[in-house]
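N-acetyltransferase domain-containing protein
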Amino acid sequence: MSYSFPKEVSWEGLSATYRTPQLSDAPEIRAILSDLDNMKYLKFMTKPGGWTEEQVRERLSSQLKRQEENQALVVHIIRDGKVVGMSGFTVVNPEHGHAEVGIILDKSCWGKNIATEAFYFSLKWAFEEVGLHRVQWVTTGPNQGMRGWIEKVCGLKCEAINKEIWRFDGEFVDQYFYALFEDDWRNRVKNALHSKIYKK
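Predicted structure tokens:
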């Protein structure tokens, strides 16, 4: 696949703006990643005492480098002039036409349709510009909010479950996989997300 990822991305939505990460975003991203409420279902990403700005800058630099190499595309979510989260693809395989999509959003912005909007723009880019065949979500059993959104809004069924694969707070949790294919995106899911975002 010969598609080259853009150096800069900017998507303007009703709820937020989505743009390429900047190293100057590090303090706001650090606050999001270090908040245990935000990371309730992403505990494998937490660090004792929280993230440092240096660690966040290293993460951002790695994401931008992988974008240059056509292996990732992450956007920061901007609302009222503040970085409130990140979304997009930390793993993209254009050769085989698949990617993994995700989102981390500050709890102050939960329930405001931002996740739907972020996924709409990300999936539109993946299927219609890159030409991917499959995009997957990987989440945990306890994350019923994400699982419910995928199942109800996108109409997807769980593709696979890895039983008791992660241990958080002394308890093992299951890992759930959901996959969206290009035909379902074009024929059904794109319109479903668009209607949810732009409903009158």
